[in-house]
Write a structure and sequence with these properties.
This protein is an alpha+beta fold. The protein is built from 2 helices and 6 strands.
Length: 93
């Protein structure tokens, strides 16, 4: 659980301190997001919102994770700094 929280915190931190660039991949809506994640066999774990109102979608596969965020203009984006491999799986509660 602690590692999961650390990964999420790092992704959220990166969303605000790293500049947006052409490497980000964006979709227009939830339907496109679900289709994109189905290709990678990752399932939605939760949707959260940070202190300033930015919405995040956290997906997890067997050994991978992806964080998506909603930009001010409404598109849903991810990028190289928002994807990775799971080092230590969390515990089921």
């Amino acid at each position: 659980m602690m590692l999961r929280a650390l990964v999420i915190a790092a992704a959220i931190w990166a969303a605000f301190l790293l500049p947006a660039n052409a490497e980000n991949f964006c979709v227009l809506d939830d339907k496109e997001l679900d289709a994109a994640m189905a290709k990678h066999d990752e399932k939605l774990q939760f949707v959260g919102v940070n202190k300033i109102g930015r919405i995040f979608f956290v997906y997890q596969g067997k050994s991978t994770w992806t964080v998506w965020f909603v930009r001010a203009e409404g598109v849903i984006c991810t990028g190289p700094e928002y994807v990775g491999e799971i080092l230590i799986p969390g515990r089921e509660t």
